[in-house]
Amino acid sequence: MRLTVHEFMTLDGVVQGPGAPDEDTSDGFTAGGWVVPFADDPVFGEVVGGWFARTTELLFGRTTWELMRAYWPQVTDAENPAAVQLNGLPKHVVTSSPLGGEEWAGSRRVEGDAVTAVAALKERGEGELQVHGCARLAATLHAAGLVDEYRLLVAPVTVGHGRRLFGTDAVPRGYDVVEHRSSERGLTYLALTPRPLEVAAAAVVDGKDVVVPV
Fold first, then answer.
1. Cα angle at 176 between 114 and 187, to 5 degrees?
2. Which of 3, 24, 143, 150 could form a Cys-Cys staple with 17, CB 3.0–4.6 A?
3. Are 145 and 172 in contact (CB under 8 A)?
């Protein structure tokens, strides 16, 4: 399976708490809910619907799984593609403790080392194993080189402090843009596949300003 990471992101790179003020207040985050004002943008619905149309299985960190488990089982609208896929497809949860309580249908705990287990999941089938949110897990998968595609819906807001997908310790990589869209309200969608980072330098050659590969 291809492993794809899906994030709502601010202009300054924050992915924390996009859906509600109290969604994730860890580390003193107070700007939650920043993507919701754009939920009625047609591009928002088309992009997110397209994500879930490609889902085969889902991969979550424990915190995001708990947040989604509390919300999505209540959405029974058969016309909502996110609800249909989230409630109906297999869900793998990276956590060090049993799920316990009233489990979300189709959820199972990832056993052992997360990177090893996710690599094994990718090898066992076809389709897409999707991560939605889960910034810490996504960063771990990025560092391990397991992500095949990043899908980022960037909102025209800045929030300053907050958790980022690519922190200062992120592994340097380049990206090919395989899909992009923009809306009149300023949403920008980028689908990116990773590749080795390329660097270059500017130099003066025969009186001309040129780019020289390094």
1. 90
2. 24
3. no
